[in-house]
Amino acid sequence: MARAPLNADAFDRSEYDKADQQFRLAEQKLPPQAVESLAREVVRRLAFRMPRTVRNEDLPTQSEIDLLCAALLSSDHDAADRIILAARRDGVDIEAIYLGYVAGAARSLGMMWDEDRISFVDVTLASGRLYRIIRGLRHIVAASFAKGRDERPALFALVPGETHTLGIEMATDMFRREGWDVDMSVGLSHDQLLHQSEERSYRAVVLVAHSDRMIEPLARLILALRITQPLSHIIVAGNVLIHFPDIVDLVGADAIMQDMETATATLRALLDSPDD
């Protein structure tokens, strides 16, 4: 496949760079099992994206997917980017890129990992590169996600495994009394929460966690939401903020919600931002 130079206009460069930074920070600051969990989440969420309306002739061959996997695993930091951008330049439909190239590469990487043909280090590198590509293409892929979904202002969700519900219940009630039509999710597992969120398009998702032990499930949930809700603003709230001053960069959030007094202003500022 032909390759093209990295074109800043083809990517949301800011989100691309933030996704790259997030994986680097995670490798530095989280234990290996947490980093492995993040890598598996990216591979899993992307691998299960199967083509439905894309014509077979528009999908990549296995040889092309193998080339993309080799690029993702190579020492060339931008090799996979060039392959994806070349496909865009050649007129390949975005759904074929996302559901064919990216999802196909994720499935191949997952199989190689399960068969011990690539190492944990390899798959972490490759999944991080896949994730930053998806974040860079978020505005382009978002339209296919929104089809058939209701749009909602916000979802307030307790991070799976967290047991302290009072704060999220109070916050949701406060927003509703101020006229916000928001949803709340408490007590769901990771997969259940993702399933619920995929039924609607949320302009913002507020994730509440309190214990420092929640950092890994929080980071994993945000990765999954970034894939399933490409344009949603992700906000972190709760006592977990005390334990991790750099939490925005570490988990890839857009903002934090410090307290009840500033909560509505924080959410309104994000929803009114030019990027929304």
**What is the overall pLDDT average?**
88
* Sheet with the most strands, sense and barrel status: 5 strands, parallel
| Low-pLDDT windows of residues | 1-6
- The rough form would be described as globular
Q: Strand-residue fraction?
A: 5-15%
Structural class: alpha/beta
Query: Helix-strand pattern, N to C?
Result: HHHHHHHEHEHEHEHHEH
Which percent bin holds the helix content? Answer: 55-70%
State Rg: 19 Å
> Care to count the β-strands?
5
Order of strands side by side in the largest beta sheet? Answer: 2-1-3-4-5
List keywords for this structure.
single chain; 276 residues; alpha/beta; five-stranded parallel β-sheet; 13 helices; 5 strands; 57% helix; disordered N terminus
Summarize the structure.
By secondary structure, the protein is of the alpha/beta class.
How is this structure best described in words?
The chain is of the alpha/beta class. 57% of the residues lie in helices and 11% in strands. The chain has 13 helices and 5 strands. It has helices at residues 13-29, 32-47, 62-73, 79-89, 94-114, 120-136, 138-146, 166-177, 190-197, 215-228, 240-243, 247-251, 260-271; strands at 150-158, 183-185, 200-208, 233-237, 255-257. It has a 5-stranded parallel beta sheet, sandwiched between helices.
Topology (SSEs and partners):
Elements: H1 13-29, H2 32-47, H3 62-73, H4 79-89, H5 94-114, H6 120-136, H7 138-146, E1 150-158, H8 166-177, E2 183-185, H9 190-197, E3 200-208, H10 215-228, E4 233-237, H11 240-243, H12 247-251, E5 255-257, H13 260-271
Parallel strand pairs: 1-2, 1-3, 3-4, 4-5
Helix pairs in contact: 1-6, 2-5, 2-6, 2-10, 3-4, 3-5, 5-6
